[in-house]
Amino acid sequence: MPPFLHGAVTRLSVTFSALALPVAAVAVSLALFGAFVALVGVDPVEMYQLMYRGAFGTWFSWQNTLTRAAPLILTALCTALPAQLGLVIIGGEGALVLGALAAAAMGMALNGAPAALVLPAMALAGMAGGALLIGGAGALRQWRGVNETISSLLLTYIAIAVLNHMVEGPLKDPSSLNKPSTPPLADAYMIGTLPGSSVHWGLVAGIVCAVAAWVLMRRTTFGFAARMVGGNPRAARMAGLPVGRLLVVTTALAGAAAGLAGMVEVAAVHGRASASLVAGYGSTGILVAFLARQNPLAVIPVAVLFGGIGASGGLLQRRLDLPDASVLVLQGIIFVVLLASEAMRGRLRLFTFARPTPVPKEA
Amino acid sequence: MDHASLGWWGVPLAVLAGAIRVSTPFLFVSLGECLTEKSGRINLGLEGTLVMGAMSGYATAYLTGNPWAGVLVAGLAGSLLGTLHAMICALERVNDIAVGIALMLLGTGLAFFLGKPFIQPQAPQLPSIPFGWWSNSAQVRSALDINPLFLVGLALAPLLLWGLRTTRWGMVLRIVGESAEAARAMGYPINRVRLLATAAGGFFAGVGGSFLSLSYPGSWNERLSSGQGITAVALVIFARWDPVLCVWASLLFGGAGALGPALQSVGVTQGYHLFNAAPYVLTLAIMIATSSSRHRLAGAPAELSVTR
């Protein structure tokens, strides 16, 4: 094979195997989940047909799917960005919650001001809330050596407690009796939907953030330095890179993405902050990030896939009488199988055909 | 006789009672995780294991009428999840932290899925031993109504410490956790040791979960545990991988967890949710205070990924 062709084939086979493994993992997971529901007496074929219908079957279900994909893109970035530096952050849910709370509080504080001022302020407040939480976990990692996985999860539980405290105390709308929440946002402060659909602008915000994150990580010196830290922290430090600053800035950006998801949930879906913001977007976002192999661009289609799985949950509940946790089980299975499949990377003969076998020299 | 009789004195008493009650799941999860981490692996999935243990224990107790059968099944379910964790981590290039997150998700999902039919029915509860028979105060008596599982956990801690320090099994476990290279050179089966340690850790965590549903708070629902498993994992770091210190740490965390309800019972409802966050704040504060970016934590198994 001529060298130039060899290079192209190698690149192609690398791309192919990078795609093939997650796809195979999802396929195996679907088979396992099918077997699981068959055990509890549900026809897996019927279930998957329903799931497809509920997720991608009609324009209505597509809109539902895309609406759910918006926060997933943003919470996935919360894991995918720090992963470039080798950090495992799992606090996306907390950043979303804190961002939502901050955005709702900003909306209350500026009530009466023009929407053109209030909406950006709410977005900034949301991003600041998320950035504070995850950037805090990054700072603790850098300066105190606190494990960022555990601290970001603990911070999530603290953020949820703060949310509950605020919506049942200082920020409570007195008329929200059974389900405590902040006062509803004025209609003018709700971000609208994309023309001709029920999908809100949060999806666009998510896609823009994902593309921006990709550009930042793959096309700038900042991203190059960040990935160098992820590859070999000691070498990065020796090369004089500001490891601490990179780490804190990246985690803060990651938190800002999830915080923006919270703002979008408040200003496009719920119209207020309440406990129903804790909907599991954070944990699904972690899985999305891992399945996308921490690539900010790949996060977009994977988030759509999982938005679809989430969207079909209601249909499974109504038609097949499956518990709403079915989606959680499927996600768990995909996650476990995906991680196990990591061991197969580069092992499959099919994908390594392009690599020339070294010929041992005769002594 | 109700809480009014003791007034504010009821708060420290309720915290003490809570410390004993609430600490039991912390104790079991942390002892199990201590064992697992000593072998050089961390299982973050114990949060899922705790919930799974609570569900399977409750379901078994309901179906068989015997709460102790529930405890056993909860332990077995836990060791099953532990075994799964260990087997996946034994594969090449698989990160134990990520697998833990995945099993946290899977364990909770399975528990919610399979536990749906058991949210309403009432299962028989574990009996408790009335150590407060000498007192006239209803509060003192209820505070000293101690569950045998707590005592089992108390006894287990020094036993584990002794086992880790002096037995051959404990030595092998620690060698594997300190240096996989050395263990390999000495011919010890690293993966098998870690598998046993993780399965045993899962068993303990499952038993801890069964306490949640079979004793305190004593019912099965989906809000039963929010983060107690992960708090207990962090607690092991605080306890410096010492099982006996895990007991004290668990009591401390149990007390912190009981603060909110205790204050509520004397009429302080302000900031109830913030007090509920006390164990997480405490964990985080302790991790910040005791970690260091410059050197490894004393007592940390050298093969452990979280402290590197």
Describe what this molecule looks like in 3D:
The complex is a heterodimer of chains A (363) and B (308). Chain A has 363 residues and is mostly helical. Chain A has 13 helices and no strands. Chain A has helices spanning 3-39, 44-57, 59-83, 92-109, 115-144, 148-168, 202-219, 221-231, 233-238, 243-270, 281-291, 299-320, 326-341. Mean pLDDT of chain A is 91; it is low at 351-357. Chain B has a two-stranded antiparallel sheet with strand order 1-2. With 308 residues, chain B is mostly helical. Chain B has helices at residues 10-38, 46-64, 67-89, 96-115, 138-143, 148-166, 168-178, 180-185, 190-214, 228-238, 243-265, 272-276, 278-290; strands at 129-130, 145-146. Chain B is built from 13 helices and two strands; from the N terminus they run H-H-H-H-E-H-E-H-H-H-H-H-H-H-H. In chain B, helix 2 (46-64) packs parallel to helix 4 and helix 6 (148-166) packs across helix 7. The chains are: A mainly alpha (363), B mainly alpha (308). At the A-B interface, helix 5, helix 6, helix 11 and helix 13 of A face helix 4, helix 10, helix 12 and helix 13 of B.
Write the layout of secondary structure elements.
The complex is a heterodimer of chains A (363) and B (308).
Chain A: H1 3-39, H2 44-57, H3 59-83, H4 92-109, H5 115-144, H6 148-168, H7 202-219, H8 221-231, H9 233-238, H10 243-270, H11 281-291, H12 299-320, H13 326-341
Helix pairs in contact in A: 1-2, 1-13, 2-3, 2-12, 3-4, 3-7, 3-10, 3-11, 3-12, 4-5, 4-6, 4-10, 4-11, 5-6, 5-10, 7-8, 8-10, 11-12, 11-13
Chain B: H1 10-38, H2 46-64, H3 67-89, H4 96-115, E1 129-130, H5 138-143, E2 145-146, H6 148-166, H7 168-178, H8 180-185, H9 190-214, H10 228-238, H11 243-265, H12 272-276, H13 278-290
Antiparallel strand pairs in B: 1-2
Helix pairs in contact in B: 1-6, 1-9, 1-10, 1-11, 2-3, 2-4, 2-9, 2-10, 3-4, 3-9, 6-7, 6-11, 10-11, 10-13, 11-13
